[in-house]
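Q&A FORM
Asked by: J.P.
Topic: structure of Factor of DNA methylation 1-5/IDN2 domain-containing protein

PROVIDED:
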Amino acid sequence: MIIYKGLMRRSLLSVRSFFKTTSSDFCKRKPYVNLCNSENLKQTREVSYCKQLVNECYSSRKAAEGLKREIDMLHKRRAELEDKLKAENFEVLQSEIMQLEMAIQVIEDDEREPIDLEEKLKNSQSKLIQKDEQLQELKEQLQELKDRVNTVCLAIQRKNDEMQDARQELIHGLEMYPYCSYVGIKRMGVVDSMPFYFGCHLTKKTRKETTKNPTNLLIKCRKLVEDQNWHPFKAGSDEKEIIDEENEEMVRLKAECSEEQYHAVVTALKERNEYEINGTHPVQELWNYKEKRKASLKEGIDCILEAWKIHKQQ
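REPLIED BY: S.T.
REPLY: Here is the structure written out as C-alpha cells.
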C-alpha cells in the first residue's frame, strides 16, 4: 500500500506538471500554431505518453487493491489456522508444559540434593565427633573404674590372705591351748564320731552288730565318704548340688544307721563337696561348736585369750 500511494502521487504530480507546462506553452505559442507543425506533433506525443502514464497508474492501483485483498484474506486464513491449531494442540501443549515443569522441578531437586546431602553429612560428622568424644570420655572413666576395682580387689585379696594367715595362726594356737569352751578346730569332711559312741540309738538291724564294737560302722561310713568314685549329689532347683536321697548307698546307710549317724554322714559329704576335698586329707577349720558354724576371727582370738588366762592361772 505504501508503494502504491507513492507511485500514484508521483504519477499525478507528473501529469499536473505536464498539463501546466503544455498550457503555458500553448498560450504563448498560440499565434504560431499554424506555423509550427513539428511542435504540434511533439505535443501530441507528449499527450499520448501522459495518457499511457495515467493508464499505468490506474492499472497499478487496481493491482495494489487486489494485492491488499489477497493479503487480508491471507491474514484471515492465518488467524483461522492459528485458532484451529490452538484448539487442537491445547491439551498436547498443556501436557508438554507439565512435563517441562516436572523436568525443571527434577533438575532443581537434583541441584538442591547435593547441598542437602552435604549439610546432612556435615551434621553427621559433627555428631560422630561428639559421640567419639563421649566414647573416649567413657573409656577413660571405665579405665579409671577398672583400675579402682583392681586396686580394691588386690586390697581385698591381701586382706583375705592376712585373714587366712591369722586363722591358721589361731588354729595352731588352739592346737597348743585346747582349753577353749566353745571354739575349736574341726576337720571338715570327716564323719563325726560322737553319734557313733555317745547317746545315740542304733536300728534293730545293726544293734547286735555294732553294740560290741561301734567303731566298725564308723570306719565303714568314713571309708564310703572318702571314696573319690562315689558322688551322691544331684542338681537342685537353684543350680546347687544337693544330696541324692535315692542313691543306692545312701538308702543302705539310712537303713543301717540311726538318724544322728546318717545326719553326720550327710554333713561330712556336704563339707567335702563345699571345700572340694579329695582323698583322705581333711581341711582344718576354726569352728564354733556351740552354734555349729565357722567361728569368726574375733571369736578365735577371744578363745585364745581365755585359754591363755586359764593356763596362766594354773
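FOLLOW-UP: Residues 1-63 form one domain.
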